Amino acid sequence: MAYHNGALDFSLFEDQDTAAVLQPQVEEQPQRRENVVELPEQKPQKEPEKQPRPKHSPLRMIAGALCFAVVFATGIGAVYSEVQLTELTEEINTTQTQLDEAQSLEVQLTMQAAQKMTDAQVEDYATQQLGMGKLLGSQVVYLHVAQQDKGTVVQEIDSGSWLDQFFAWIRSCFAG
Predict the structure, then answer these.
(1) Taking the C-alpha atoms of 70, 75, 80 and 85 in order, what is their torsion angle to the nearest 10 degrees?
(2) Which of 87, 111, 132, 153 could form an SS bridge with 126, CB 3.0 to 4.6 Å?
(3) Which residues pair with 105 in a beta bridge?
(4) Alpha carbon distance 46, 171 (integer Å)
(5) What is the per-residue pLDDT across 138-160, written as a single tens digit (0 to 9) for each?
(6) Which domain does 105 fall in, by range?
(7) What is the C-alpha to C-alpha distance for residues 10 and 18, in angstroms, rounded to an integer?
(8) How far is it, in rounded angstroms, from Cα 90 to Cα 70?
(9) How many angstroms separate the Cα of 70 from the Cα of each of 59, 64, 66, 76?
(10) Does 101 reside within a domain?
């Protein structure tokens, strides 16, 4: 066996006639570059015509500006109302704290006053020091008013403008 570059050469085992028949003849073709694409010749292009700029409609511009203004005003209004709400909440919290402190002080002072004097001590002080006494039946005076007496309005006082009256009417509707 004959080795040709580290491989077996099987051509030695074949007939010479069959070897010629078995091996196809390869025609060499001119080498083509595979990634080359040929484009047909093109005529020189004319310069593209400049298209006129589209004219913006003034009505559309005004509508866009108005929409922007409405959205902007809405945003500003929302921020402003949030700021007012925060300020009012802080004021309510401060007032609530002051109310809680005042109620606590009232309870404390009431307890101190209760410790200093009892009801019996107050009654003794009123009768002995101030000369007061218990209510007697002879001290009660009843007044009788006749049914025919009436009060009349001589002059009506102006209650404000029609706008003030309208708001007063709305408040009275909501008040119940």
Answers:
(1) 120
(2) 132
(3) none
(4) 79
(5) 888 888 777 776 667 666 666 67
(6) 60-130
(7) 13
(8) 30
(9) 16, 10, 6, 10
(10) yes
Determine the residue type at 68.
F
Greatest C-alpha distance within the chain: 164
Please report whether residue 98 resides in a domain.
yes
The three-state secondary structure class of 4 is strand
| 32-80 pLDDT, tens digit each | 556 766 767 776 666 667 777 778 888 999 999 999 999 999 999 999 9
Residues 73-109: b if buried by 16+ CB within 10 A, e if exposed: eeeeeeeeeeeeeeeeeeeeeeeeeeeeeeeeeeeee
What's the domain count of the chain?
A: 1
In a domain, 22, yes or no: no
pTM, two decimals, is: 0.35
Q: Looking at the domain assignment, is residue 9 inside a domain?
A: no
